Amino acid sequence: MQTTQRIIARMLIVSLAWAGMPATAVHAALIPTDQVAAGRASPATSRDRVHAFLARADVRAEMERNGVDPQAADARVAALSDAEVDVLAGKLDSLPAGGDFGGIVGAAVFIFLVLLITDLLGLTKVFSFTRPIK
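Below the sequence we write its predicted structure tokens.
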């Protein structure tokens, strides 16, 4: 019984330490008063925001990895209408700021459950608190 409590305590310590890690991809900017009063960004500002997003090194690397020419993407953004650029800039606002932390936790839980089930079936022996059902 004491071993089970120790294992649970260790798992809680690790999960709480992991949950306290800061997000690495957080970006913030000030909004000028005239844009707030207008209710939305001007088309020039929206276009600048989209171009600035496409100019980031991580975005360019991802585009090149997927076979997209960054200059062609810039040219396509320049060819968009103001309304289309506003929609695209609005979608940039809805992106998660800190990355996909939920995906990492979900993957860890999935791996834990797979190992637990294989331990219970007697296929592996990873956890000391399980007994095979054979």
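The chain is about 65% helix and 0% strand.
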